[in-house]
Amino acid sequence: MKDNVKLLSPLPDRVCQGFCLPDAVLNIGVGGGSECVHVCACMCVQKSQVFFLFFGEKNVGTKLATRGGGGEGRSAQVLVQIVKIFSEDGMCKVVEIPADMTARDLCQLLVYKSHCVDDNSWALVEHHTLLGLERCLEDHELVVQVQASMNSDSRFLFRKNYAKYEFFRNPLTFFPEQMVAWCQETSRSIPPSQLLQSFLTTSSCPEIQGYLYVKEVGRKSWKKVYMFLRRSGLYCSTKGTSKEPRHLQLLADLEDSNIFTVITGKKQHSAPTDYEFCIKPNKGRGEMKELRILCAEDEQGRTCWMTAFRLFKYGILLYQNYKIPQQRKNVLSHFSAPVRSVSENSLVAMDFSGRIGRVIDNPVEAQSAAMEEGHAWRKRSQRMNVLGSHSPLHHSSLNSVIHIAQLWFHGRITREESHRIIYQQGQVDGLFLLRVSQSNPKAFVLTLCHHQKIKHFQILPCEEDGQVFFSLDDGATKFTDLIQLVEFYQLNRGVLPCKLKHPCTIVAL
């Protein structure tokens, strides 16, 4: 393997692609000698440079990755550092990364090594156990740099976050009109068409305004204050809702702080509502007295403040992070086959009754076709029963357990646990999971997020002609198994407030 790899054209940003070398043997020098190990590798490309991370079967101590420097015979050695990543089930994976690896690159590596579907919705989470705080790292942040500022009880988590860039797709749902205004102006609001542009353009001066509860430092009491969030920082008004500079007091500087979600609930801080968040200084010692703990009236208000904080702090960098996956997809097409993706647009209702197939655009016709398909399944199962084979729809058959292996099925979790998982993975429209019902052990529950509210729909078994089916609309639409039910509601809204779009997934590292 050559030390220098020349690219035909410069790349727009860093991409990371994993691959296996099952029969390759790599000589790594350690202390004057060498070790031979079977390896798999991850290739990272950054602009005109390519470097490889190697993960061997035998531990050879600290490894150095060779990076091409552009000139003939020139190379630089990069010290690889150890980072621990935890999954939701508490399992840990130790990876070795270069000091300049970003959160996006590390997520790409974990997706490859964990054999996950790469749909650009994975995130690295900075989790502080004792403080009860967590936040998703931005894709461009350096992992080693963030780790250096973390306490001994803190850890990185690897999980889904569908809402990471959702505000670019649906900005009006994230920024209520009454909360967004121009600085120093009281009468003129920002037109919806200029909303995102005003946040990304440094020459404009938008602000988020509204009431927040502020926890008083060193005390358990809270005070309701009118606040303003601007590029220069978070301010509170000492006189009602006044914007005059003499009435504004700086509470936090955005440049030297990060915004976190409080995950311990309102009991720990005796908060007035459940919608807590926190501003934590980067260079502090991680003590509770250094935190600015705030509380919003509702989930939409909290989401607005936290999203605006990210936009003011990082600006155009967030938009570049949002656009990079498409650029990376074009670059990786030179190295491998296209990455499999799962999206609403990839699922359509089809009619194959004629000589050629056609897409069914009419939702009523699509629902009718799905019901006909369900009847066809029943007829096939009845023919199998006549022939003496075991009924595929019997309670002990495959259809009653086939859903267990699906990513969206979470087994026997509580209602509260389903809320926590939905919230952690983004609270976007169509985010869903299925679980066993607590009140009826033979039934299941579909937990679905719509307009940042979580709703539950009970799926009941029903029997017809000795066959067991599942339905969530009192038997109007029946399905032979839960997989068929989920696939139907991914195509059709039916009785639900929206289609099923994003399955809640917990990966095992």
Number of β-strand runs: 24
Main beta-sheet strand count, sense and barrel state: 14 strands, mixed
Regions with pLDDT < 50 over 5+ consecutive residues?
1-62, 333-345, 381-396
Proportion of β residues? 25-35%
Number of contiguous helices: 11
Estimate percent helicity. Answer: 10-25%
Keywords for this entry:
single chain; 14-stranded mixed beta sheet; alpha+beta; 5-stranded mixed beta sheet; 22% helix; 24 strands; globular
Describe it.
It is a single chain. The protein is of the alpha+beta class and 509 residues long. It is built from eleven helices and 24 strands. It has helices at 103-114, 143-148, 166-169, 171-174, 195-200, 266-269, 299-314, 316-332, 363-386, 415-424, 482-491; strands at 15-30, 33-46, 49-56, 64-68, 75-86, 92-98, 122-128, 133-136, 154-160, 180-182, 206-215, 222-230, 233-237, 248-252, 257-262, 275-281, 292-296, 350-351, 358-359, 431-436, 444-450, 453-464, 467-471, 502-503. The strands form four sheets. Strands 4, 5, 6, 7, 8, 9, 10, 11, 12, 13, 14, 15, 16 and 17 form a 14-stranded mixed sheet that branches. A hairpin with a 2-residue loop joins β1 (15-30) and β2. The relative contact order is 0.09. The model is unreliable at 1-62, 333-345 and 381-396 (pLDDT under 50).
